[in-house]
Design a protein that fits this description.
Helices cover 42% and strands 19% of the residues. It has 442 residues and is an alpha+beta fold. The strands form 4 sheets. Strands 6, 7, 8, 10 and 12 form a 5-stranded antiparallel sheet that branches. The radius of gyration is 32 Å and the shape is elongated.
């Protein structure tokens, strides 16, 4: 909980120097300028495949961990679980341990003490929800500036609306709808079975050791198992199930029942592990008194190796694409209304909207050229030659003309393939896009 919440709340405040013309927030979703900044990485709109690749990696990672360790994501890292744990921690600080909270809940009379404790708890939950919504919107704007605007009332209404929605949902989901979200709203419990098999390590109860359960004294002649039916495993379960009834859809593999049972086993002098991570494949061996298979043999099996390989393949592909991408780029959109223009001397001219991308942190001089028929020449609207200065970290729109003499082959043909090149004059880096030149077609 400390690690995941620390990452969530503190990340927007990490600074990263990118130069005078770029934001200095390490992680920023700049929707206004259509950029995604992640430390030294900058993702442009046309590079959304990086985001798609990360989502694929997240899905494969979820499949991998579920195949190896069941719903370990749900139990340890899911936002619903993390904020529910935080709400329960606050509840424990204010209202006391579980027994004290139950007594307060069952108290029908609303006296001053009960009202004070409930109001204090709900106020703390609202502050957590407010911090949650605030941290989320800080990812979409400069955090210090947005915080100042929020406090002074100068922030955009969307910021206040987003904070209000996230505050309410965090307050309601973490405080009142806890296990209902995991059981009824989340689709993952319904599909996790497809990711699991008999080698998956899940939280389970060794009923062959614990049964018959009971509270009697254990002696050599006693037929009672190790389970003393203390209900500790049930009392700590955040979704309210009894793990002794076997695997259930509601179990989120949080392992709180393991800790509670191990504590109880130590108190009564019995071995730990009555409730533990185990695989169904080991059940028969353990019933016969044999030790379970080594944990790595459960984890390293064809299914998990396949998921790991696919996950790594996508990751290496994204890294490769990241390192080979160019710092300059262009897109070419032919203007086809009209498809061509006949000039006064009979020359044929085609018009193109060329969007030049300069991903550097400073202004760069770009030179445009055309490759195709030798008779073709390129002209830039509003500029005396083929050179244009593109501002730092900008997609600059430049109208470009390609002209050929009236007797040249491209002027006579219906269409001719051409290639428009752009070169960064400061370092020689180049990029190109292919398009077509339309002639009279005679």
């Amino acid at each position: 909980m400390a690690v995941t919440l620390g990452i969530y709340y503190l990340t927007p405040w990490i600074r990263w120097d990118r130069g005078p013309s770029l934001p200095d927030q390490a992680v920023l979703l700049d929707m206004a300028n259509r950029r995604f900044y992640f430390f030294w990485i900058e993702i442009w709109p046309h590079e959304f495949y990086f985001v798609a690749g990360l989502l694929i990696m997240a899905g494969l990672g979820l499949f991998l961990f579920t195949s190896a360790l069941g719903r370990v994501w749900c139990g340890y890292a899911c936002p619903q679980t993390v904020w529910t744990d935080l709400f329960i921690l606050v509840e424990r600080w204010i209202e006391g341990d579980r027994n004290a909270r139950l007594r307060l809940h069952r108290q029908e009379k609303l006296d001053f003490r009960k009202a004070r404790l409930r109001i204090t708890k709900w106020a703390a939950w609202l502050l957590i929800g407010l911090a949650t919504g605030g941290a989320w919107i800080f990812y979409f704007a400069d955090a210090p500036t947005l915080l100042s605007d929020l406090v002074t009332g100068n922030a955009h209404p969307i910021a206040y609306t987003t904070m209000a929605v996230l505050t309410f949902t965090t307050f309601f989901f973490g405080g009142f709808a806890r296990e209902q979200i995991c059981i009824y709203a989340c689709p993952w419990p319904r599909i996790q079975a497809a990711m699991m098999d008999e080698d998956t390590l899940v939280v389970g109860y060794r009923e062959w050791r614990g049964e018959p359960r009971g509270k009697g004294k254990r002696t050599e002649d006693s037929e009672l198992g190790d389970c003393i039916d203390c209900m500790a495993c049930v009392n700590v379960c955040p979704v309210g199930i009894d793990i002794r009834d076997g695997q259930q859809l509601e179990c989120i593999t949080c392992a709180l029942c393991i800790d509670a049972c191990d504590d109880m086993m130590e108190k009564i002098g019995k071995p730990r592990g009555l409730i533990d991570y185990m695989a169904l494949k080991d059940e028969e061996a353990e019933r016969a008194g044999h030790p379970p298979k080594n944990i790595w043999k459960h984890i390293l099996r064809p299914r998990t190796i396949m998921y790991t390989s696919l996950w790594s393949l996508v990751g290496f592909g994204l890294l490769f694409a990241l390192f080979i991408r160019s710092d300059i780029d262009l897109t070419v959109a032919p203007v086809r209304n009209p498809t061509f223009v006949t000039l006064s001397d009979g020359s044929i001219r085609n018009t193109y909207d060329v969007r030049l991308r300069n991903k550097h942190g400073e202004e760069r001089p770009f030179q445009l050229s055309v490759v195709g028929d030798p008779s073709m020449r390129i002209e830039l609207e509003g500029l005396p030659d083929e050179n244009v200065s593109v501002p730092a970290d900008t997609a600059f729109l430049q109208r470009v003309y390609i002209v050929t003499p009236k007797d040249a082959a491209p002027s006579q043909a219906a269409s001719t393939d051409v290639r428009i090149w752009v070169e960064d004059q400061s370092n020689g880096e180049r990029a190109y896009k292919d398009t077509t030149f339309n002639g009279r077609g005679n």
